UniProtKB/TrEMBL annotation:
Species of origin: Desulfonispora thiosulfatigenes DSM 11270
GO BP annotation list: isopentenyl diphosphate biosynthetic process, methylerythritol 4-phosphate pathway involved in terpenoid biosynthetic process
Limits of the 1-deoxy-D-xylulose 5-phosphate reductoisomerase C-terminal domain: 145-227
Functional summary from the UniProt entry: Catalyzes the NADPH-dependent rearrangement and reduction of 1-deoxy-D-xylulose-5-phosphate (DXP) to 2-C-methyl-D-erythritol 4-phosphate (MEP).
Listed cofactors: Mg(2+); Mn(2+)
Assigned EC number: 1.1.1.267
Gene name of this polypeptide: dxr
Residues annotated to bind 1-deoxy-D-xylulose 5-phosphate: 124, 150-151, 174, 197, 210, 215-216, 219
Catalytically driven reaction(s): 2-C-methyl-D-erythritol 4-phosphate + NADP(+) = 1-deoxy-D-xylulose 5-phosphate + NADPH + H(+)
Source domain of life: Bacteria
All copies of domain DXP reductoisomerase C-terminal, residue ranges: 259-374
Xref: Pfam families: DXP_redisom_C, DXP_reductoisom, DXPR_C
Protein name per the record: 1-deoxy-D-xylulose 5-phosphate reductoisomerase
Amino acid sequence: MVKNIALLGSTGSIGVQTLEVIDEHKDDFIVKIISGHKNVQRLLEQALKYKPEYVIVTHEKSYEILKKELSTFPIKVILGEKEIAKVYQEVNLDLVIGAISGAAGIPSVLAALELGIDVALANKETIVVAGNIVKRIQKKTGAKIIPVDSEHSAIFQCLTGHEKAVSGLLITASGGPFRNLSPDELHKVTPEMALNHPTWSMGNKITIDSATLMNKGLEIIEAHFLFNVAYENINAIIHPQSIVHSMVLYGDGSVLAHLGLPDMRVPIQYALTYPERKNNSFPKLDLLKIKELEFLKPDTEKFPCLNLAYRAGKIGYTMPAVLNAANEIAVELFMQKDIGFMDIPKLVEEVMQKHEIVKEFDFKDLLEVDKWARIECKKIKDRM
Ligand code: NDP
Ligand code: MG
């Protein structure tokens, strides 16, 4: 079956790799919608190559340029996501790929789920911030989420219809570039150092999150919602080679693992072709070359973000949204060199401490909480 797809965040790291997967399977997909924010040049190139019906752009300056450049093509350029549900319906979509970074990626995913359109989800923030709302919508419309995040894709592929016998999940983490630094050295880490990830090549925000282990924390919350496993039974394990992408533990003592090279195109392809599994020409794993696979306990003293995420997840309700928003701002401040590396967990923790959880909320309320946490985070930084 040929799938009509929308690729949201097509100019990013996941977006570009998704298009590489599509190039491998040209007859299986029609790109109907692409979207970007500030990278006009790349978005323009993609528009000319894939000839989508719509290009959605969320940055005003980019919009003006694209509208002019694409005026002679039968491609509609739209500013902002207000009309996104209408556009989804017009192009008769089979799958939306949610690959925008940060909380900005949530509304377009929720809009797809509301319409009963399946989503291949890279944007973990959707689940972390709005997990309860996502579940509510899925119950109503039956839309599926197929995980793109490599760990969750691994778990998804290791769940072989024996979900009731699952006793736990082991989520692997590379440990980031600073695994072996002393606490003193961690205080001196710069954005340039943090952006140099040992095994994965990713967008800036998630690369910093990998260095603080916040990415693993967000993934634990993501796994809790996606696979209905209690936090007590989800553990993170450091695996520097990034070959085992995660594991499912079963009550009979079996452990099922998914192995592969650290190449996001593999989980992206599985999410796109699901329920089918297809061949591709990407490099394949040779275990004789890798030789050793190590597994180590994460150091939560040096990397407090992991426990902050567990805490936010266990408290639940609006707390994961606060964790996410405060972290987005803290990472931004670190990238601008306004705060140090170890100030990231400090700021996030302080914002969490100030938050009074709300037990009944809709998406609009979550947006308010998100906004509050961002402002609070900046205020705390100003007092530092
Ligand atoms: P990038 O920073 O590389 O790309 C982000 C994409 O989102 C770009 O297309 C960017 O547009 C767009 N974007 C940024 N801000 C906005 C905004 N305010 N409104 C609309 N669009 C926006 O990120 P990644 O590709 O690395 O990550 C995307 C998502 O996937 C994240 O949620 C991340 O956690 C998740 N993920 C990524 C992995 C990876 O290997 N990269 C692995 C697992 C999950 P532009 O560039 O044009 O400004
Ligand atoms: Mg991941």
